[in-house]
Specification:
The protein has 2 domains: 1-30; 44-160, Clam (outer membrane lipoprotein receptor (LolB), chain A), CATH 2.50.20.10. It is 18% helix and 41% strand. The protein has one helix at residues 2-30, and strands at 44-54, 62-71, 76-82, 85-93, 96-101, 106-111, 137-142, 145-150, 156-160. The protein has a 9-stranded antiparallel sheet with strand order 6-5-4-3-2-1-9-8-7, with no helix packed on it. A hairpin with a 2-residue loop joins strand 7 (137-142) and strand 8.
Length: 162
């Protein structure tokens, strides 16, 4: 009788794993595939700044370069890199958004507005504009730079004015 229960449990576990895999694949297929960008084509404005990013309250600060490209049709491309290696690349346009972290081998994307908890999509220019009123993000500006911070998570992006 025990062998029968073990077999049932194994089949149930395999069925659950199969269903989870199908859901995962289906969710991945709903993420929009965004066309490659050519920042050299007309209409792009690229801004560059030195920046410091602290991903969480107890995380170390990372110094790097911040590139923000904005196209007149509304497309945006944002990248934070350190010594030429991209840590975060975010893009938005055509009703879709995408964010990738090649070093962590992680990414996400979707249609519509990007998640408000992701600060990279708030960088519409350098220096950035004020976040929406309902956002947990606060922007401080001074003559030489700016700071975008989330008090709840401790995440901070700070940059110099180009």
């Amino acid at each position: 009788m025990k062998a029968g229960r073990a077999g049932l449990r194994r089949r149930a576990a395999l069925a659950w794993l199969g269903a989870a895999w199908v859901a995962w694949v289906a969710a991945g297929c709903t993420n929009p595939r965004m066309a490659p960008l050519n920042l050299a084509e007309p209409g792009w404005r690229l801004r560059e700044s030195e920046a410091v990013w602290r991903p969480a309250q107890d995380a170390p600060e990372l110094m790097g370069e911040l590139l923000v490209a904005h196209h007149h049709d509304g497309r945006r491309w944002i990248q934070f890199s350190k010594q030429g290696l991209p840590w975060i690349t975010a893009r938005q346009g055509g009703g879709a958004w995408q964010i990738e972290s090649p070093l962590r081998r992680r990414g996400a994307g979707g249609r519509g507005r990007p998640p408000g908890r992701v600060p990279w999509f708030l960088l519409d220019d350098l220096p950035p504009s004020d976040p929406p009123g309902h956002s947990p993000w606060r922007l401080q500006r001074w003559a030489s730079g700016w700071k975008l911070s989330n008090e709840a998570t401790g995440e901070v992006i700070e940059g110099s004015n180009p």
